[in-house]
Write a structure and sequence with these properties.
By secondary structure, this protein is mostly helical. It is 72% helix and 1% strand. A two-stranded antiparallel sheet has the order 1-2.
Length: 348
């Protein structure tokens, strides 16, 4: 039976989810220089999808309440418990539910990116960043105050598609998240080395020149917001599925927007490998602080609750002062393989 060590499981989970969100941010910020301060928006959409859609569909199939009563605090645990018991007896359907949830989360995350794009894309710089940040707060406040969606202030339970695995359920979900993170990392690498990826960086580096060469900057921004929204919504859905619950207030700008920015700045903006390294370092340090905060309280003159934030803040200041390009700076992406370029050079 697959069961990871609890410490390894926590590190892998935080690394996988953090990598997915930060890669989505790198596509928008690193490849196109979009001031994306609303990363929270698509993540919350993904979590809402995982909490609200598959459970309601399964409730309808089983003849259980699936409307507004599905999100009522007294009814939801009973309904989700009945759904989970049924899923435990139907593993094939459970796997389909997991895949369906991630696909719908990606589609709605992309749709939200599209809907946010057109009101915002004629803005630039800090104005665009603040607008995207406001969009993120709007969706959280709707989820928090509109009870029929995902339970409002109480939250709701999330149907568990891996319940049939019993005690191995949590470890398997973590490995699923890691597999998804690897797939998205490979996708981002292929994107970075593709003609489209080079076009994004051309728009980033010289927007007016790109327009002169016929590139539609507005359309390009919209496309990137759609891709970034879809990827980060998958992270939100995976997190909600792992935790087994969804409560809107627990999704904060600090965790789902500012932490990914910190990962990105540490690793290197525009470099997927740097993002991977940045997420891994932060994840290990943060997990160690959380796990050993009790021991640390005996040797530091303050509450360890704040140590995580203080150390990360100091690390960010140090990065900006001494290595603003990050640990692994972005390298130029050649249009042709190096070997091919050397052959051309010899011929010339």
């Amino acid at each position: 039976m697959l069961q990871l060590d609890p410490l390894a499981q926590q590190i892998i989970l935080n690394f996988a989810i953090g990598l997915i969100v930060t890669i989505s941010l790198n596509i928008e910020v690193g490849f196109l220089n979009l001031p994306q301060f609303g990363r929270l928006l698509a993540v919350v959409v993904g979590a809402i999808v995982a909490a609200a859609i598959p459970g309601r569909i399964l409730a309808l199939m089983l003849g259980l309440p699936a409307g507004a009563e599905y999100a009522e605090s007294m009814e939801n645990p009973k309904i989700v418990t009945a759904i989970n018991e049924w899923l435990a007896q139907n593993p094939h359907v459970s796997v389909l539910v997991l895949v369906f949830t991630l696909i719908i989360a990606a589609l709605l995350g992309g749709l939200i990116g599209y809907l946010c794009a057109y009101p915002a894309l004629r803005l630039k710089g800090p104005f665009l960043g603040i607008t995207l940040l406001a969009f993120g707060d709007i969706i959280v406040n709707i989820s928090w105050n509109y009870q029929p969606l995902v339970g409002g202030t109480i939250g709701i339970w999330v149907a568990d598609p891996l319940r049939f695995l019993g005690p191995a359920r949590a470890s398997t979900m973590v490995l699923v998240a890691l597999a998804v993170a690897i797939i998205i990392y490979v996708y981002a690498e292929l994107l970075a080395h593709s003609p489209y990826g080079r076009m994004l960086k051309a728009v980033r580096d010289a927007e007016i020149a790109a327009e002169v060469y016929g590139k539609n900057v507005i359309k390009t921004r919209a496309q990137v917001l759609i891709v970034g929204g879809a990827v980060s919504a998958i992270a939100g859905a995976l997190w909600a599925l792992y935790t087994g619950s969804m409560k809107a207030v627990t999704y904060t700008r600090l965790t789902w927007t500012f932490w990914p920015w910190a990962f990105l700045m540490l690793g290197g903006v525009g470099n997927n490998l740097g993002v991977l390294v940045g997420v891994f370092i932060y994840t290990v340090v943060r997990t160690a602080i959380i796990l050993y905060k009790g021991a640390l309280s005996a040797v530091i003159p303050m509450s360890p609750e704040w140590l995580e934030y203080i150390l990360i803040g100091l690390a960010l200041i140090a990065i900006m002062l001494f290595r603003p390009q990050g640990l692994i700076p972005e390298k130029p992406t050649p249009a042709l393989p190096r070997k091919k370029l050397e052959e051309i050079k010899k011929r010339v």
